[in-house]
Design brief:
By secondary structure, the protein is an alpha/beta fold. It has one domain (2-131): Rossmann fold (3-Layer(aba) Sandwich). 48% of the residues lie in helices and 15% in strands. It contains 7 helices and 5 strands. A 5-stranded parallel β-sheet has the order 3-2-1-4-5, with helices on both faces. β2, α3 (35-45) and β3 (49-51) form a beta-alpha-beta unit.
């Protein structure tokens, strides 16, 4: 499965800890991330991550393009609900919209991310193969 990992600045440490905790599951999949998030995850996990540009430099748009082409199976986007500047970021809304349009599971907080990653490990997301 192809998994996209994105995190706002206030959630990057949480994303690192999430990836440490679920390293075993994540290592069995292809990982894609915005530049800074990907680098920070690699530093603490040694996972191999395909890194795009930093989110504010176009990385979120690059991941959005992959979603549009049905090349992403799961998105974990740890958003910071307290960052007012990011609340109306069109890239965030675009990723959510694209996931809805293309039926791609999306987690925007730790609770939903853990549910999806455990579902992935159980094989509950194998239906995504039918969409490819």
């Amino acid at each position: 499965m192809n998994i996209a990992l994105i995190a706002h600045d206030g959630k990057k440490k949480l994303m690192q800890n999430f990836c440490i905790a679920y390293r075993g599951i994540l290592s069995k999949n292809e990982l894609f991330a915005t530049g800074t998030t990907g680098r920070l995850i690699e530093e603490v996990t040694n996972l191999n991550i395909h890194k795009y540009l930093a989110g504010h430099l176009g990385g979120k748009q690059q991941i959005g393009a992959q979603i549009e082409h049905n090349e992403i199976d799961l998105v974990i986007f740890l958003r910071d609900p307290l960052d007012i500047k990011k609340q109306h970021d069109p890239d965030i809304n675009n990723i959510v919209r694209l996931c809805d349009m293309h039926n791609i599971p999306l987690a925007t907080n730790l609770a939903s991310a853990e549910l999806l990653i455990k579902s992935l490990d159980r094989g509950d997301l194998e239906w995504r193969e039918m969409y490819k």
